[in-house]
Amino acid sequence: MIWFKKNEGIKVAVNHPINPRNPSPGFTDLFAAEARRQGKSVEFWSKKNADLVLLIGKSKNPERMEHFQKQGAKFVQRLDGIGVKDPKNPFASINYETFQKVNGAIFQSQFCLEVWEKVFQVTKPSYIVLNGADEKVFSREGKKNNFGFNRLLVTAARWREWKNLDQVIEVFETLGDKDLGLAVIGEGAAVPKHPRIVAPGRLSHRQMAEVFRAADLFIYLPWYEWCPKVVAQALVTGLPVLCSYNGGTRELVQDCGRAVGGEKDAELEYFYRNPVDPAEAVKAARELLEKHERVKPRPDLYASKMVEGYFKVFEQVLENARP
Question: Are 112 and 82 contacting, i.e. CB atoms less than 8 angstroms apart?
Fold first, then answer.
């Protein structure tokens, strides 16, 4: 049985490889880098020993899980969504299968936890830790890139239909401001040709920060969303956010922007189309642009704070497992 010594810290293993040189780190790379900056031990689970295993999403490797179980290690699952591909057969979700084998779960938002409760029920000790952004990269001061526009909207959209890029473009065009440009960050989105729309594709995080510092408003209107890292990044850089009400995005935004209602916000589901009210979105965008203000500092969304939150959960899960 492995028990961590507080003076040595918790040895954590993660089920995704770690790339310390990734210029656009996802959760695993960001979490590991910040934890190591804080002097904490985080390694890919190919290593032999750990006090606790953080399963990022699902696990398809029962052999590795069994290896750590035999050591006495405990498991925490990070849930960014519920991983249901077929709403008629939700229990086929590998996320759900993994959940049955863990000692606790970290949900990315209250919305994520509530959807899980409705679809599966929450039967393990569960916690909420919002996604964070690297405050050293997404600093409020630094280089800027406005793509040559006097004023700039920014959004992030990939190929997924539920990202609702069409309505973002509709809002942009309805604003009718000839000095205003729109930058669409991300790969694979169907971005129309337009003299005031640029699609730089996938950017490094440092490049994204340069755009956020120059922009006037981040607009993000998916039908639903769990806890988008890109919104945390925009907010930490000081950019106000206009978002859709449904989902976990507004839990990040709080009073640093506006949330626009959709057709089906009263239903706690995520399998349907849920466009926002276009008139309300245009009105909110116009008001936020007219204010032309940066938002208050958001240290609650710093990656350092996020990692501290995770390790508090790890300590609690290990404490709960003591005889």
Answer: yes
Residues forming a β-bridge with 104: 76
Query: 151-300 maps to which CATH number?
Result: 3.40.50.2000
Query: How many beta carbons lie within 10 A of that of residue 118, not counting itself?
Result: 12
For the stretch 127-154, pLDDT in tens is 999 999 999 999 999 999 999 999 999 9
Per-residue pLDDT tens digits for 310-323: 999 999 999 999 98
Separation CA 57–CA 96 (nearest Å): 10
Distances (CA, A) of 90 to 10, 82, 93, 193, 278: 34, 9, 6, 39, 32
Nearest Cα residue to 244 out of 229, 257, 234, 233? 257
Edge-first strand order for the sheet with 197-201 is 197-201, 180-185, 151-156, 217-220, 241-244, 257-260
To which residue do tokens 């399998």 refer? 271
DSSP string, 125-178: -EEE----B-TTTS-SSS----TT-SEEEEEE--S-GGG-HHHHHHHHHHH--T
CATH of domain 11-132+302-321: 3.40.50.2000
Contact 1, 72 (CB under 8 A): yes
Question: In this structure, what DSSP letter does residue 80 have?
Answer: S
Q: Determine the Cα–Cα distance for residues 216 and 219; give it in Å rounded to an integer.
A: 10
For the stretch 248-258, what's the b/e string if a residue is b when 16 or more beta carbons lie within 10 angstroms of its beta carbon?
bbbbbbeebbb
